[in-house]
Amino acid sequence: MNFFKALISWKLWLSIILGGALLIGLWFYAFKFLDNYTKHGVSVEVPDLSTLNINEAIQKLEELDLRYEVDSVKFTEDYPPYAILDFYPLQGSKVKPGRRIFIKSNPSTWRPVELPDLIDKSSRLAITQLHLRGFVLGDTIYVEDPARDAVLGVMFNGDTIQAGKLLPKGARVDLVLGRGFKMDMPVPQVEGLTLQEAKAILKDKFFDIGQIYYLGGTRDTIGTKVVYQDPPPNDNYDEGLPVSLWLSKKPTSQLRKELDSLNLVYRRKLDEKDSLFYNSIESSRTIDIKDLPEEIRNAIKYDQNTNEQMRPKEEPKAPAATGPKKIDTTGISID
């Protein structure tokens, strides 16, 4: 009885009606919302972007309510800058509004490349490293330096640049190289100068400093000047070779015998017609060797030993016969 009363109760039917209305409202709202959210039945055709540049393509996609993502990492010289190389979805594809279009475009130039450290490396190794990084070798500029073909500097657009500088790939790079030593260059005049001045001049002319000797009882460089040099001034000499110097506190006028003896050792010619005419060649022949500095005595002895070794040896003569003498029997009768 109570069950039938409940069935005809208005409260029950009101609850059923309200529940049904709520379900119908939720169903209608849900499907309508999903249609609007997913844009059901609405599509956009992907346009042809291959003939456009990146700016034109972006403008076209925005007009169609399409999003985009651009990849422009790799540069290729086969296409102009900002050209569209590829895109996805393809032309003519039906997509929803707001769909993301992936575009691959050509950048304006190569991605910047870091310049390697080339200083003090050989030109061949430096050129190889430049080519591996995608750089182009420009001019090779040679400067005065004993390191032949060693890289002393790198230039770009006329400016010196350091390792680690970011440059466009394919950039034209100039190398500053040492020209190395030259042959048969005149020896500079350093006689009459201090040791420091002589060293500076010889270094500036790419000659090395040879042995340092002292004349006139001097044993240090204080107050001394160069009174003699070998090779002599203006003599042809290869750069990088040593130039020996003799120092003394005395003027050259008081070192006449020593200088003449040095001329005999270091500036004597093989042919008498080509010999140098010294101030007093006769006096140099009468010098007592014991009165000369040790380095000159050693040089003279070395020179004499060299001449003796170069002198052709005489062939030994056959020894005379030592047998019994023959007796002349002419005119002797046996009878």
Automatic annotation (TrEMBL):
Gene3D superfamilies: 3.30.10.20. SMART domains: PASTA. Keywords: Membrane, Transmembrane, Transmembrane helix. The keyword Cytoplasm does not apply. Residues 304-335 are annotated as: Disordered. Pfam families: PASTA. It comes from the Bacteria. Residues 41-107, 184-249 form the PASTA domain. The chain crosses the membrane at residues 12-30. The keyword Lipoprotein does not apply. This is PASTA domain-containing protein.
